[in-house]
Amino acid sequence: MITPKSSNSQLIAVLGAGAWGSSLASIASANGHQVNIWSRHGSLSLGDAVKDADVILSAISMKGVSEVARQIQSLALPVKVIFITATKGLDPETTQTPSQIWQRMFPAHPVVVLSGPNLAQEIQQQLPAATVVASQANNAAIAVQSILTSERFRVYTNTDPLGVELGGTLKNVMAIAAGVCDGLQLGTNAKAALMTRGLTEMVRIGVHWGAKAETFYGLSGLGDLLATCNSSLSRNYQVGYQLAYGATLEDILTQLRGTAEGVNTTQVLIQRARQRNIYVPITEQVYRLLQGEITPRQAVMELMLKDTKPESGE
User: Fold this and answer.
1) What is the pLDDT of residues 264-276, one digit of tens each?
2) DSSP β-bridge partners for residue 15
3) Catalytic residue among 171, 191, 212, 306
4) Is 88 one of the annotated active-site residues of the chain?
5) For the chain, which domains are there?
6) In the β-sheet with 111-115, what is the strand arrangement from edge to edge?
7) Which of 117, 150, 244, 280 could disulfide-pair with 227, CB 3.0 to 4.6 Å?
């Protein structure tokens, strides 16, 4: 899909025609920018989509990031092209984040991370939302902020791209746990405890990874955690909710529209946590649940029966 270009507009190539990519494309288009949307099943070739692009916005699933990045790498792109990554996941082979993959393959280009409490269906309904764009090249983040800011979509900048990216990625694991909590009808007290300790776990992982702790208390961490753990629109929440009702993971993923990135993220995160000896009790139970080693109720009991300790400790 190609939309016409107006004066003073930029050409934005959006990779991924799912709900999230389409939502971001609509925002950019409404702001007067030309938008090319590419998908594997569309008629527009990848080369034609990114030709003469000022910005390449990736909203593809995690499993396709490396392959698509390699394809674009074979094209001659001017160094002024800005990459935006809106994918929330971890690479199973390297445990790298999407922005780390893009930056490794395009070291001369600015890479901007976009993440926040952004349920695509609500954005498509033109309900108000806010997000964060973060980059080590602050001028690139400011440029992206200008492209996407609208009266219904408020965009903040941040200088901690890793923290912003991990906030949006790690909360998907917690959303699966929150879905289990609601599916088992454990109540508000239990869910509040889960989300609070889940945020603590996210901060612990992020700081160990090299992110700033305070980033996780912003929109891309706490904000996204609140949205995803409290909405049936979240695919990751739906995975946990349906597991609590006895559905198999295979059946859930088959019927789910779109990708629940938290399933893959949990597996990659456990691999990294065990290699680096990071304490991740909630992630551990979600992993065991997804592997079929325990039932949803057993996962909850494992967390409740952990050794007592001070709240500020691990």
Assistant:
1) 999 999 999 999 9
2) 38, 58
3) 171
4) no
5) 11-159 (3.40.50.720), 162-304 (1.10.1040.10)
6) 34-38, 11-15, 55-58, 82-85, 111-115, 129-134, 153-158
7) 117
